[in-house]
Fold this sequence. Notes:
Strand order of the largest sheet: 2-1-5-4-3
Low-confidence stretches: 1-19, 148-155, 230-238
Largest sheet: 5 strands, antiparallel
Amino acid sequence: MPSALPLNQFPRNTAFSAMTSKRTAISQLAQLIENVRHPIYVLDEDLALVYLNEACGSWLGVEPESLLGIVCKYAAEPADGTTETIAAGLCPPPTVLQGEPKCGTVFATLPDGVQRRRTARFFPLGNSASDVFGVLTVVAGEDSPIEENPTPSNVDPNAIELHDRIAAFRQEIAGRFRADAILGNSPAAALARRQTEIAVGCRCNVTIIGPTGSGRQSLAAAIHYGHLDKSKTLGVAGGNFVPLDCSTLPDELVLSTFEVIGRSSQADPQSRKTAVLVRADALSPEAQTALSEMIARRWIPYRVIATTETSLVTLSAHGAFRGDLATFLSPLSIELPSLANRREDVPLLTQVILELCNASQSKQSAGFTPEAIDRLAAYSWPGNVAELREVVVESHRNAKSREIAIEELPEKIRFAAHAAAYPRREDETVVLDEFLQRVERELIRRALARAKGNKAKAARLLGLTRPRLYRRMEELSIPM
């Protein structure tokens, strides 16, 4: 493998020929570390790779110059061999650009496709914390495999630990199906992952049960495409993923689409097609009957995935869904709980979404401050993972530093804790007759007191006759 190019030898027609005196400092540093045995690389203030020594190229299995100029995004991605993904595995926590050395983990994809990791130290380059013009990274130690199920720490993880944990999930779990909604250490997330692995490994129909915003349709896509990725090694042709929203589409369109998919599947038995009944519980009784007739004619030679808020089998037991259709759609059911019931997964899911923002934009954030994470974990999340995604995207956009603080969270999150401290008073039910009796009783007592017990005078004060006052006093149990 040829040696890495020192920065001062880049061709003049490259972007690097226009580097400032700061780049010259990096070039001088590169000459000193050219032959160091440890992998070493340097990034500029935009997190673009400007130097890799030969040892680093050997560890990564690439020509060092093939990575030069690529911006490292702080986003854990599945190992797919692209230069952008390789560069992402080298990205330091963006907070190192604030002038503080950091320790972390970097990743390399070996020729056998297995991703390995090493510890690394990231050193900011500059005269002061406000004048950082690059990052020097020294990779140390031996390769270590990524754990399939990393053990959660007993203390609240920081952003770097969350980043490493996401990389592990990406490699072992989400890298195969890209289903971020089932990442987490909660028992519910672990069960959903096991059920999803079963679904990816077979062709049976699946029902995905969960509240709105829990990621049901994205999990359906992950099951479909995860199975396709596995099938490619067997020479199986690609397939179609066809979502059909039963709550908005006319019955005729849903049924005709099923027929079209059925005919194309019969014409090409090797294809892998999946029809998704989004909100299957909204299917009209007539559409349910028609689908059941299609099943009886064996007109559905492809996989069907249904998404619903309530188990179709449970609905059928209460007469709200056809039993035979519920049985056909539900040989395997995957439950996605509400985010409020898996709050321990909020920090990890938050970091996952944040790193997706990093991957798609030039702006790079390291994570949320512990105080901001606590505020997010305390929120009730009525919109589930979909609402969390909106909050993280807005927070990433609002961020003014490398870590997102409480004041950069959307207002509804910041004010939710304040509102919880002052719970709304329960509305009292007013029984009109009882209320009017209390008022009348109090008025009679005040009139008697003003009249010094003289009932005739009290009756005149109240505008009543004396007999009527006596009757009211008796009815209201006021002592005569």
